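Methods — Computational structure assignment.
A single polypeptide chain was analysed. Its primary sequence is given first, followed by the predicted tertiary structure written as structure tokens.
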Amino acid sequence: MEKLLKDILYKVAIESITGSTDVTINKLEFDSRKLEAHDVFVAIRGAVSNGHDFIQKAIDLGATVVVCDTLPTVMTAGITYVKVKDTNTALAFMAANYFEDPSKDLKLVGITGTNGKTTIASLLFQLFQKAGYKVGLISTVKIVVDQVEYKATHTTPDSITINHYLTEMIAAGVTHCFMEVSSHGIHQKRTEALHFTGGIFTNLSHDHLDYHATFAEYRDVKKSFFDNLPSTAFSITNLDDKNGAVMLQNTVSKKCTYALKSYANYRAQILENQLSGLLLKINENEVWVKLIGTFNAYNLLAIYAAGIELGMDSLEALRLLSDLESVSGRFQFIVSSDNITAIVDYAHTPDALDNVLKTINDIRTNNEQLITVVGCGGNRDKTKRPMMGEIASDKSDKAIFTSDNPRNENPDVIITEMEKGVAPHNYKKLLTITDRKQAIKTACQLAQANDIILIAGKGHETYQEINGVRHDFDDMKTVKEILEQLGK
């Protein structure tokens, strides 16, 4: 798709140009390995590498335009150099321009917060699809264009990928798109040039402090998403979260609130909470839903609020809410022939793990054992490890600490750091088994009829990343097979 360079520089904060902007370009790239003749190379400063180090390589591969924040000391003749204030922001606007600004032609809703983003985005996709709309989804689990699914690699993809899929959505007749917006994505300006119809804030808890220097910075990055929404958009925030009101402080968008405990525009009360579902009273109407737990009551309330703000009839929204199915790896459970309940959940933050265990403990009779299998990811926020260890050991009858995605760290070191959070009186509950499959097998062997096994941390993921290599591993498939093999 050929474009004139001057046309895709619209709204870019340019500091200087060396060469002509009246040149035809092929495509945009920030990965020098993917460059071809007449491409534009945007030099991004990443966490691992700096695109400015690959400018000459980009030119050697055929790039005719270089966008950078620092000009190279040696300039190649015939190459156009565009110096900008920030290359991430420049890439966002250039990508939108290159793909002819697709986000303006559909209703795009961004969901941000620590927990619940995937569930809310995926269930909103389900809700609007059931209502008869053609819908798009950009999530941690997958990208969906109407009926066509693509694999997701990041919670919030890069600006080029986002605009590419939004263009596919427009071509497929999609009218609504629901998108997870991560703090990384906001900070790296991936959502900068998008036109959002609305934003949803779920909650804020301990996460990503390996990336953000402080919790305040993490909070303020999330807040900046709402600060930048236009007056034509809506912002929906969880008023029961202590940071919920903060998100709306400077936004010019329409302010909407939801809560279970506070006075809000959208309120819910849990009337029944069982393993088979929830009976909720939402604003004056009762509705039975298939999802369980207080955290899902919040998710469903946010979904209902978004449906109404997007013009859906309230009774129709409630009817469709009752038909929604749980999302892959989010409190997914099976019941074995011995009535052992095995639950797989993505809970990989202290708050999420606490919510899941609280939900199980609220529902159970206490005549059964609760066995939790959990680990922490490598090369990620280390400060949450003892907290995860404390929660798992305190709120379970038995806890098995194991490997999650150790990445490039020693899994035994990660487990030792989790153990630091275990209170002395909980030591007797604890087992450590580094091999994840063996840990799950041990939980299944320990489980008796009517017991509950929670396998937390990886959820929908079908791999385990060890020393940079992804190995096939699916928690749900593994626990199912082991329980069948054991005849339980």
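Note: The radius of gyration is 24 Å.
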